[in-house]
Amino acid sequence: MIELVEHYQTCYPNPNEELQEHLETLDVEFMIEDAYKLLESLRLGADRIRQIVLSLRNFSRLDESDTKAVDIHEGIDSTLLILQSKLRGKAGSQLIEIVKTYGSLPLVECYPSQLNQVFMNILANAIDALDEHVASGQRAESSVPTICIHTELTEKQTALIQITDNGPGIPEPIRTKMFDPFFTTKPVGKGTGLGLSISHEIVVEKHKGYIACVAAPDGGTRFIIEVPCKQTQWGNVQHTANAVAAKGSENTANTAELAIG
Question: What does each of the 261 residues of the chain score in pLDDT, given as a tens digit?
Fold first, then answer.
């Protein structure tokens, strides 16, 4: 229709006075310009919906009950896309920055939907902690709320994932309990205390892996997840992850409470 109108204007650049007045009343030029913008918005919206649907499909993988070799990075990216609205922060709070340093990982044999749930639980807790830290007024305005996600392939051929935030940190007494079922520091109605307990079960029991929480070197909290790239390798996991956790736990002073659950 727009092409027809534009073609008509090209063929008849000088319409009669009555038609010209009618065109000016309708403001055809503005309508055409606005129509193009509307169509572009619809295209972007449809593309956005497509990305979300694909991410939800990749995140859930409900049709996969057995282990499957998958790209861990795709699972993390899908989880981040689902959490994008939370990353924008609550009203009046800062946008949370995501810094990804992905290493070269092979496809990892795992239960994809369950491992994605682990990423979801940890990232959601980190986002809540950063939002609360900003809202408390204790955070310097120049400090940007940040979550860093680092992955690497270890010498033992295991996938190591570290998720670090620059929030207030978690005191040692809480870190020792945080994987216990029903343990939470969130207000009643805001936390079940099951998220990290389920994550521990998924990583340790289902994937024969390792998960730990330590104080980040520059403050904040770091979660360390390590899973074998092949399920027959699980005996190598704990040695590598223990070394990473031990290094991270050297910096545990001056931490404040973080709501978890």
Answer: 666 666 566 766 676 677 767 667 766 666 777 777 777 777 777 776 776 666 566 555 545 567 889 999 999 998 998 888 888 766 556 789 999 999 999 999 998 888 999 999 999 989 988 888 888 777 777 788 999 999 999 998 999 999 999 988 888 888 778 877 776 766 555 656 677 888 999 999 989 999 999 988 878 899 999 999 987 755 555 555 555 565 555 544 333 333 444
Question: What ranges do the domains of the chain cover?
Answer: 1-60, 69-248
DSSP the chain: -HHHHHHHHHH-SS--HHHHHHHHHHTHHHHHHHHHHHHHHHHHHHHHHHHHHHHHHHHH-TT--S-EEE-HHHHHHHHHHHTHHHHT-STTSPPPEEEEE------EEE-HHHHHHHHHHHHHHHHHHHHHHHHTT-S-TTSPPEEEEEEEE-TTSEEEEEEEE-SS---HHHHTTTTSTT---SPTTT--S-HHHHHHIIIIIITS-EEEEEE-TTSSEEEEEEEESSGGGGGGHHHHHHHHHHHHTT--SS-------
**Starting from the edge strand earliest in sequence, which strands make up the sheet with 221-228, in order?**
97-101, 146-153, 158-165, 221-228, 210-215
Closest CA to 109 of 241, 233, 2: 233
Q: Is domain 69-248 given the CATH code 3.40.50.10490 in the classification?
A: no
